[in-house]
Design goal:
- Strands 1-3-2 form a three-stranded antiparallel sheet. A three-stranded antiparallel sheet has the order 4-6-5.
- Among the domains are: 139 residues, Arc Repressor Mutant, subunit A (Orthogonal Bundle); 82 residues, Arc Repressor Mutant, subunit A (Orthogonal Bundle), CATH 1.10.10.10.
- It is mainly alpha-helical and 324 residues long.
- The protein contains 13 helices and six strands.
- α2 runs antiparallel to α6 and α3 crosses α8.
- The N terminus is likely disordered.
């Protein structure tokens, strides 16, 4: 029998009034358990190493990625990709109607406000052209056009799972997630289903504060913020001013120089940076930006850890709880 990975219970969904974003900006619909777990993780001795590992992995893995195009926001690219993997990995082989389909991806995006049906179709069309996913006919019902990952797509999904679990493993004294990923063929599916169920249940760590939400709505927004943060923490010279040319950032993430400039200027307007020279030659990183990265990272880690711990405690296939 398939197991069900579910989000927090109603008791755990109580809001934590003491939780807040940097500079007192209110959190957006943040469950109390998530705020408390995130605060605990921020106090962990290995938190800074975990955050630096995560930022480095996420930027390196997504450099020059061809799907960094103006099809959908950064948040939509991330969550729709996870949802597709979850649908495929939790598919019931005895039920020809189960699995990943364009329609189910569009339903997920519509229910969570991620993207319009046309943008989801464009994104999946791009993934098919890139050779990550393919469409297969279902002999029992030719109206169903199931999506399945190619070998390349399976490799990328596994790579992303390792990328997200590696830093969280540094903060966990419980299950060995990376070993389970290798030895339990259903663990990755349960983990992905858990993340999707959290999202369907309203747990949206990446929308926790307006500044985080703004950058997640931009193409390559999170990766560019990670790159600026890494440039600051790795220079280790006591200066708050970094050099991070817009041309280099634009080339790394296949966006325009103007796109990068507009994001940095928006960050300055939000009190995250001070631009001292054009073109990214001198950007002052303000304490609010550092606090924002730490807050956002800890929330994401808390959400990942809950999904991973739930998946580790179960056996068999997971299930996406569409009815929540």
């Amino acid at each position: 029998m398939s197991e069900v990975t579910r989000v927090a219970t109603p008791r755990e969904e109580e809001r934590d009034p003491s939780a807040g974003a940097p500079d007192g900006a209110p959190m957006q619909e943040l469950p109390g358990w998530l705020a408390r777990d995130a605060a605990t993780l921020r106090a962990h001795p290995a938190f800074q190493d975990a955050l630096r590992t995560y930022a480095g992995l996420m930027t390196r893995k997504l450099e020059n990625a061809p799907d960094r195009v103006r099809v959908a926001s950064e948040e939509a690219l991330l969550l729709i990709g996870i949802a597709l993997s979850a649908m495929h990995l939790t598919r019931d082989p005895a039920n020809p109607r189960s699995g990943a389909t364009l329609t189910r991806a569009q339903v997920f995006a519509a229910r969570t406000g991620l993207a319009s049906p046309s943008r989801v179709a464009a994104l999946i069309g791009l993934k098919k052209r890139m050779g990550h996913w393919r469409q297969v006919d279902v002999s029992e019902d030719r109206r169903i056009k199931r999506l399945e990952p190619t070998a390349k797509g399976e490799h990328l999904a596994g790579l992303y799972a390792r990328t997200t679990l590696t830093p969280v493993q540094l903060l966990s004294s419980g299950a060995d997630y990376l070993t389970l990923l290798q030895t339990d063929p259903d663990f990755q599916g349960r983990f992905a289903a858990g993340a999707v169920n959290q999202y369907l249940g309203g747990v949206r760590a990446l929308r926790a504060a307006p500044d985080v939400s703004y950058f997640m709505r931009q193409v390559a927004g999170r990766q560019i913020m990670f790159r600026l943060w890494l440039a600051f923490v790795e220079q280790d010279n006591g200066s708050r001013i970094i050099t991070c040319p817009y041309e280099r950032l634009a080339a790394s993430f296949t966006v325009s120089r103007g796109h990068v400039r507009r994001m940095v200027e928006a960050g300055q307007a939000r009190g995250l940076f001070v631009i001292h020279a054009p073109g990214g030659q001198a950007i002052e990183i303000l304490p609010k930006f550092v606090a924002l990265q730490e807050m956002a990272g800890s929330l994401v880690f808390a959400q990942i850890r809950q999904a991973a711990d739930t998946a580790a405690a179960m056996t068999g296939r997971g299930r996406i709880a569409w009815d929540m």
